Amino acid sequence: MKEGTISLGETSFPKPQTAFTQFGELVTGFLSSFFEWFGELGIFCGRLVRAALTRPYEGRELIRQLDEVGSKSLLLVSLAGAAIGVVLPLETSESLTRFGARSMLPTVIIISIIREMGPIITGLIVCGRVGAGIGAELGSMNVTEQIDAMEASAVNPYRFLVATRADSSSGFLGHRHGLGCQYAQ
């Protein structure tokens, strides 16, 4: 007779599980998958840092990614900044007029855009546009087994694909924030 079963003659039935046992298995499964995900994330980040900081650097691919991330998100960030620059004064002026602080409108607009909204809006727009593009590109490379072919050709995919995209994305985000704030004013 197997452990965890009840036998009645020649027929055996599994032992009924209590709600406490089911809850324990659920929590254990959740925690193990949670820590497994964090472990994989740590390994990925370690490989990314090692690939980004050690030689040889993939200069051509980095320049291509800088163009992809930088110049192709310029129009979108500029349009979003201009829209914020138009809408924010319209919404704020009525409230400031009610309190007799209409002369503070330019100061409030500049501070709210540069300090608060500018980095968030720029980050969301660039991450959404660039992240979707990078995800689609790497996903199609994985489906067509181009990443496996790179490994077979002794090319480090973390150095060529991941490090260049991470460097270009982090390098241009600050530049795009400044540009978005400029168009918002």
Element order, helices and strands?
EEHHHHHH
Q: How would a crystallographer describe the biggest sheet?
A: 2 strands, antiparallel
- Report the principal-axis shape: flat
Number of folding domains? 2
Question: Roughly how many Å is the radius of gyration?
Answer: 27 Å
Number of helices: 6
> Which percent band covers the strand fraction?
under 5%
Structural description of this entry:
It is a single chain. This protein is mostly helical and 185 residues long. The chain folds into two domains: 39 residues; 125 residues, no CATH class. The chain is flat and about 90 Å long.
Task: Tell me the layout of helices and strands.
Blueprint: E1 5-8, E2 11-14, H1 19-53, H2 59-70, H3 74-98, H4 105-143, H5 146-152, H6 157-184
Antiparallel strand pairs: 1-2
Summarize the structure.
The protein has six helices and two strands, in the order ββαααααα. The protein is mainly alpha-helical and 185 residues long. Helix 2 runs parallel beside helix 6 and helix 4 runs antiparallel to helix 6.
